[in-house]
Predict the 3D structure of the following.
Amino acid sequence: QMQLQESGPGLVKPSETLSLTCTVSGASIRGSIYYWAWIRQSPGKGLEWVGSLSHSGSSYYSPSLKSRVTISADTSRSRFSLKMSSVTAADTAVYYCARTTMAVTSPGSYAMDVWGQGTTVTVSS
Amino acid sequence: QSALTQPASVSGSRGQSITISCTGTGSDVGSFNLVSWYQQHPGKAPTLLIYEVSQRPSGVSDRFSGSQSGNTASLTISGLRAEDESDYYCCSYAGASTWVFGGGTRVTLL
C-alpha cells in the first residue's frame, strides 16, 4: 500500500528558503499515470494547492506562488521536494504531499487520493 | 485562479440530509467534470470522498454523493451522523495541470 511522508525543518526564518521532502513508499514517482502534489493549509484556513510534479518530471505551480516555488524529483525516484524562497509569516502552514491519478475513469482520477500526514512549518525569527 | 466558493458552515440534525455547494467559473468547475471532495477532521490529513463529480472511491459510504450543474458542484450527505461533523473541501481541475480548492465548509450537528 502506497504511503507518503513529509519531512523537513519545522522552523524557517523570514526571507529564507523553505525546503521539504516527500518520501513515497510502495511506488515510483515515475509511474506513468501519477502526478505528485504539494498542498498547504495555513492555521485556521482552507487548503491551497501549491503545485504538482508530473511523472515525466514537469512541474506546475499555483499562479500566486509560481515566482517562489520549485518542485522537483529526487534521482532516487521515490522522493520529491518543495522549495519556497523568500518566505514570510504568511507561509506558515501545514504542508501536505499527495498523489494525483491522471487517468480519467481510473479510481481517484484527477483527485488527490493518497495524502501524507502533513508537516508543520513555522516562519519566524 | 480564485478559490472556489463554499458556504462557511452547514448544519443539520441527525438523520437529515444536507448539501454543500461549491461554485467556480467556466474556467474550472464548468469546463471539466473533475470536481473532487475531501473530508478533514481536526488535526488530520484530508481524505478523498468523491472524484469526477460523483464517483466514490472504494470504502466511502454511499451516504456521500456528488453532483454538478454548470459552474456549481454539490456534495450531499444523507442520514447525517455524529461522525460526519467535520470540514469539507471541494477541488476542481482547472486545466494546464493546475487545481483550485474551495474555502471549506464546516458541518455541524444541531
Residues 7 and 39 of chain B are 15 Å apart (CA to CA).
